[in-house]
Design a protein that fits this description.
Blueprint: E1 3-7, H1 16-31, E2 35-38, H2 44-55, E3 60-65, E4 80-84, H3 87-97, E5 100-103, H4 108-122, E6 130-133, H5 140-151, E7 163-166, H6 169-177
Parallel strand pairs: 1-2, 1-5, 2-3, 3-4, 5-6, 6-7
């Protein structure tokens, strides 16, 4: 695993543990010779992670849509900064550059990126590992939602195996390095194949 795309908040969040875990993840990525791919911001958890990786002499690629955010949002100290036309191209570019994905606490944008890459895995568009760094139980409601989705008949239980979950950055990266894509159940309940 050479590159991991990390989805995380452009705000710092309300808990000191978020920042602490982000700094730990930055250290773990560098210790494992894994380059960071992310959205390119200098602010919030995004900025903390990119700056930590750079501080430890790791490599960071940021992918930023042109003219969507003010210039002072962009981290100009990155190893590589790629400008793209829009958010759709940004997500595709980050996915193409990465061997795996990790979601940390964040807002709607982070959720959207996580669910899109999870959906792509369910459909077989990619077979890369997807991790949740579940700091202070931040993602417990999402995990609960996924279990409810299975219970209500909208998702197969095998889909949960697409998602690796840990509250420990080193453990999560190790899980991702050892990931073997699961065998998926037939997606459609009414289709007999």
């Amino acid at each position: 695993m050479k590159n991991i795309c990390v989805y995380l908040g452009s705000n710092p969040g309300s808990r000191v543990e978020y920042r602490e875990s982000v700094l730990q993840l930055g250290n773990v990525l560098v210790q494992n010779n894994i380059d960071l791919v992310y959205g390119g911001s200098r602010l919030g958890l995004m900025g903390e992670l990119s700056n930590q990786v750079l501080k430890k002499n790791g490599k960071v690629t940021g992918v930023m849509p042109k003219n969507l955010f003010p210039e002072n949002v962009v981290n100009t100290q990155l190893t590589h900064l790629i400008y793209v036309e829009d958010m759709h191209e940004r997500k595709k570019k980050m996915a193409d550059l990465s061997d795996g994905f990790i979601a940390l606490p964040g807002g709607i944008g982070t959720f959207e990126e996580l669910f899109e890459i999870l959906s792509w895995a369910q459909l077989g568009i990619h077979k890369k590992p997807i991790g949740l760094l579940n700091i202070k139980g931040f993602y417990d409601p999402v995990i609960s939602l996924l279990h409810n989705t299975i219970k209500e008949g909208f998702m197969k239980e095998s889909n949960l195996k697409l998602l690796l979950v840990s509250s420990n950055p080193a453990e999560l990266v190790n899980m991702m390095k050892e990931y073997v894509p699961p065998v998926m159940e037939q997606k459609w309940n009414e289709l007999k194949i």
